[in-house]
Amino acid sequence: MTNIGILGAGRVGTSLAHALSSAGHDVTLGRRENGDEAGTAIRYADHATTARTADIVINATPGDSTLERLTGLRAELADKILIDVSNATRDDADGLPGALCYPGSSLAEQLQAALPGTQVVKTLNTMLFTVMTAPGALAVPPTAYLSGNDERARKTVAGLLGDLGWDSAWIEDLGDITTARATEAMILVVPHILRRNGFTPFAVSIAR
Asked: Is 175 part of any domain?
């Protein structure tokens, strides 16, 4: 069992919290309001408390404001693994992603530079959020990419993906954090898929 803190209580964060809690992990979901909810083992706390008390932290905050939010938690995130599942984009008129906030770089790289005492690992940002916790529901096996400077941290994150139902053969370890700029750029194809097919579960994957 791992003590996991999740920053962001939207659809992504909440879905991950319930799945990881069901897998036996001790989960705290960070949001503005404190207080637990009946019928769930998940605890709720503010972002600073969530980051400080967790062993592994998942960033599920909106990507366009993540850097500012998490830079303010530098002390709380020190010496911890930070799993970044966000995409930093500027929206088009219809509210779907239109452009990258960090062209030529990535949110993950920006986070690693701003949080040198934290091991940042990028993953799960190339799919509809429902696939993150139910990869086996797709007709074709999806791919989860890993990017991070610390090999041990990437292996730890791969283990957590296994708890979410990801077969090891579906996990592609790309190497250091600079490789995240490739997977984050994949978000640019997503709005075109959504406009044609709606929110049907999908992942941007490798076919072999």
From this structure: yes
**pLDDT(11) > 80:** yes
3-state DSSP percent of the chain in helix, strand and coil, to 5: 40, 20, 40
CA pair distance 101, 60, nearest whole angstrom: 16
* Residue range 135-189, pLDDT digits in tens: 999 999 999 999 999 999 999 999 999 999 999 999 999 999 999 999 999 999 9
Residue 99: strand, helix, or coil: strand
Reported pTM: 0.95
Instruction: Return d(Cα 143, Cα 40) in angstroms, integer.
Output: 30
Query: What pLDDT digit, counting tens, does each position of 39-81 carry?
Result: 578 999 999 999 999 999 999 999 999 999 999 999 999 999 9
Q: Which two tokens stand for residue 140?
A: 């074709």
CATH number for position 189: 3.40.50.720
The whole domain housing 50 covers 3-197
**DSSP secondary structure letters along 27-47:** EEEE-SS----TT---EEE-H
* Token reading at 103: 């062209």
CA 32 distance to own-chain centroid: 19
Q: How many domains does the chain have?
A: 1
